[in-house]
Amino acid sequence: MFIPLPTWFIYGPLYLASFTLSIVAMAQGRIASGAILLLVNIICVPVLYMFAVAVGILTWSGWVDNVVQQVKQDPTTVLAAAQVAEDTGSVPATTQFEKIEGAFGVRLGDVFDLSQALGNRELGEDSPMYGFATEKGFRSFKLYYVVVTPTTHRICCIVGTGSLKDRSTAEKEQAVVLELLKEKYGEPFSNRIFRSLGNIATITQGQRYIVTKITGLEHVSIEIRYCDKELMDLAEKERLAAEVEKVDKTAL
User: Which of 84, 148, 204, 232, by CA, is between 20 and 30 Å from 57?
Assistant: First the structure.
């Protein structure tokens, strides 16, 4: 009931069953237990429901506020406004935000030399990450990877990961990272619904975005990703084209 999503179809039938069983109990002579269950159903449950609705409204209103703030702080909009202001001779105070170009010494869209990769691991199905060495690392992140388009080898995602001793330390470190990112790129968007699941926060600029998250309970890790959606779409197109070339077309 307290999950801030429509789950009435789950607890509604259970509530009706509980109400019915209270009547059945009294009909069978178990007056005390039946009456207590009936009172809980007609008094406590509605009160809890109203409280749950209030929690849901607060959660969703907070989420909407975050979305509004993210739209207001979207650097792509700011850069467009700066171009207009250039003609009028006035520059808005928010033009200090930089565009998302890359991190850790590599840039999104650049071609990555696979022969220089320091091993690889899987980001997901058909999405290998290639390790690389850098002199421009950040203290939280010890391993660095890129995801590239399968054919043209253009960098579509940059990933940094690191292990920390516990979740509290990871959350403090993430707060530092987010503060630095906010100063450079704008206000991060943190969805309250999913924050408790993975401490996820995002900064978006048009087709490019940065995601930070914390994972694990015993083995805690912090991760940051710089991604370009257009290049990730290109990666999928190249992957499909390569798969099409492998198959026997005469069979279809």
Answer: 204
